[in-house]
Amino acid sequence: MQTRGVETQSKAASTEGGRRTRDRILRAAAELMFKQGVAGTSIPDVQRHAQVSASQIYHYFGDKKGLTAAVIEYQSTVKLEQQRPLLDNLDSIDALREWCERAAVRLDAVRCAGGCEIGSLASELSDSDPSARLGLAKAFAEWQAAIESGLTRMRERGDLPPDEDVAALAVALLAAIQGGMLLSQVNQDATPYRRAVNVVIDHIADRVAAARAVRPTDH
User: Fold this and answer.
1) Average pLDDT, stretch 178-207?
2) What sign has the CA pseudo-torsion 139, 118, 22, 134?
3) Please, what are the domains in the chain?
4) Contact 166, 151 (CB under 8 A)
């Protein structure tokens, strides 16, 4: 039964009109779940916001759980794409600072309302929905991998010590970003976010300075 449902949804969304309808539902659900939370967003809410019938929502997504899973994937994809090409080039202190500061500017623009789209979903769903937790973990893993990739290139160039634990640095920066955004949301002020990420980036900068201090000089 479950496989046939997935096949039906796939076929239904295979036409141009079907894709447009599905995308409209998905964008509406993502917007509402970010503003109201998943628990506070009903199928009728999405129906009204997307201007579709309830049967269309069930047709494309099966049920609310299927819709929520699609929203997680959608938000993950959108957030990653919004941050490229910076996200693909986090291989210098300046690049790390610019990437994090752009997020701070976005927080300033909305007075820190809402926090992080992925982080908000994670706070609400991680303990109650195992399948959603896996999707959210995948999203965070992609962010972490991008940070780690840039730091790895820095280590390979000799900008970081050869034994530097770049995975630990990437986790620390991602944790600072998410924790800083949460504190900024509560305080309606981006200062906690800026302080948290700058402490981690300053530490990375210190490690860069240490690597350069022992680098052999050219003669």
Assistant:
1) 97
2) positive
3) 9-62 (1.10.10.60), 76-214 (1.10.357.10)
4) yes
